[in-house]
Amino acid sequence: MKTLLKQTVFLLPLLPLLAVSGFAQTTTLSVTIATEASMTVTTSTSTFTEAGGVNTFGNFTATTNFTYRMRTTKTGGTGKITVQITSDFPAGGPSVATPPTGDTITFTCTAATGTPCSTSNASTTTPGNVVTFGADGHSTQGASPDAGTVTWTIPNDPIYKTGSYTATATFTISST
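Now predict its structure.
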């Protein structure tokens, strides 16, 4: 019985401390949402095919697919996706920098959000707009990024020499 009494006496002084130690505290949550942009070109090689089939001299077309996310500043913000030919086709075939007369390589665009380009000329010196965003521009809400395409057109000129030709198109995304 003596041992039981010692345990009871020992616990009684702690009971007031346990009741006081359960008080509530708060914290303020703070987040700063900045401009942001990301993009993935999902077509590693855009292969041109002849419209109308071989021996029709139809234009060559190819499509490049990409996904993106965008957020611009509420007031005065802008955003864009651009493309530039950073390595032109070799001599003998089509050319972006020095095309034969009337053989300008062009592209058109689609985009889930923003303003996609209409027909634009490909360039080795100046990036061409693919998609543009204004103030408070943003992608669609949700976990999946938005999607877009660039469809390229090369005139099929009989002057081109036979063979395979490649060029490199560099896409860039930015937001303010």
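The chain has two helices and ten strands.
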